[in-house]
Specification:
The strands form two sheets. This protein has a six-stranded mixed beta sheet, sandwiched between helices. The chain is an alpha/beta fold and 330 residues long. It has 13 helices and eleven strands. It has two domains: 192 residues, inorganic pyrophosphatase (n-terminal core); 120 residues, Roll (Diaminopimelate Epimerase, Chain A, domain 1), CATH 3.10.310.30.
């Protein structure tokens, strides 16, 4: 089998991999988002309906507020990884991004389902199927197609998981273009099964704390402009991280506000999460490929939305990130 199968069709090898197995771990990337979790939970449900044993595992942490209700469904991978188990890694095809569950995944056959480009498959068992479509806006759409390829119709619960992930990665459809009519057709199929866009919108965007709004104000107030306004950079200090915690974050609302500023092409938010480590969120509007920048620091994501972690303080990380944009804007 080729090391990368980029196709809109579900590979027959993947269907066979599932049908010939009896016990599955469904894994995703560390620091999961709604697309990763939605993909894992929808696929687990489908495999259970096929009579398989299926478990969802993640290195975590579950930072996003909208994932709190799902985190208790994930179990310790060390309890179930054995020579009778297969794994399906979703929304991730770079070994580093699975985090500390990798040591278990390396020992068992692993299929891959992903929609990210520039992935490193070199450390995984490529004797097993790889299903990648870099033109697909969410991994949940690939899971949607896989469930159909397995001869099943999605259930109400699966529709909820799938639409949740689809809305996460499309920014509630605002990142789609005139080329994405098929995405809306899939969304309509999910809604016809009972998934509620209204409920999902509130789950993702509602229920925020007052502290989250205060923290948005703090980050907005220290935003700096570079390269004639094309790049904006701001930060969250360690003191704020300790004070407000993860519940004080609302990255999507913050990103929307800053990316709406005239002439802005890219946005970076740096968060000091310990004395010597930062997480970096990168966003862009159109032509700037921030996934390439993230990948150069062993991060990952999409062309217009990516992230990474980096050793250092806010100032040292900011200097490194600014330098990484010089070739783009100069």
């Amino acid at each position: 089998m080729d090391s990368c199968n980029i196709s809109s069709a579900v590979p027959d090898e993947l269907v066979s991999f599932i049908k010939t197995g009896s016990r599955f771990i469904i894994a995703g990337h560390k620091e999961p988002d709604g697309d990763c979790v939605g993909s894992q939970l929808a696929l687990r449900s489908a495999l259970l309906r096929l009579g398989k044993e299926a478990f969802v595992c993640s290195a975590g942490p579950f930072k996003r507020i909208e994932l709190k209700n799902y985190s208790n469904q994930f179990i310790d991978i060390s309890r179930i990884a054995d020579d009778k188990t297969k794994a399906i890694i979703v929304d991730c095809s770079s070994k580093e991004r699975t985090g500390d569950i990798l040591e278990y995944l390396e020992k068992i056959p692993c299929a891959i389902i992903d929609h990210h480009a520039a992935s490193d498959h070199s450390q995984l068992n490529l004797q097993e199927p790889v299903y990648i479509d870099i033109n697909c806006p969410s991994c949940t759409l690939l899971i949607f197609k896989l469930i159909k390829a397995l001869g099943l119709e999605i259930t109400k619960d699966e529709a909820d998981f799938l639409l949740f992930g689809l809305c996460t990665d499309t920014g509630f459809f605002r990142h789609l273009t005139e080329k994405n009519a098929d995405v809306f057709e899939a969304a309509a199929a999910m809604i016809s099964k009972g998934a509620s866009p209204k409920n999902i919108f509130y789950a993702i965007n509602g229920g925020k704390s007052l502290n989250s709004r205060i923290q948005i104000g703090n980050i907005l107030a220290r935003t700096e402009s570079f390269f004639d306004g094309k790049l904006l950079i701001s930060c969250e200090t360690l003191e704020e991280h300790n004070k407000f915690g993860l519940e004080g974050r609302d990255s999507d609302a913050l990103n929307q506000m800053l990316l709406s500023i005239e002439n802005v092409e890219a946005l970076v938010i740096i968060r000091q999460e310990s004395t010597d480590n930062c997480t970096v969120s990168l966003r862009s509007i159109d032509k700037i490929n921030v996934a390439e920048i993230a990948a150069s620091f062993k991060g990952g994501g999409h062309k217009n939305a990516s992230g990474l972690t980096m050793k250092g303080t806010l100032e040292t990380v900011k200097e490194t990130i600014i330098n990484s944009f010089k070739n783009i804007f100069n």
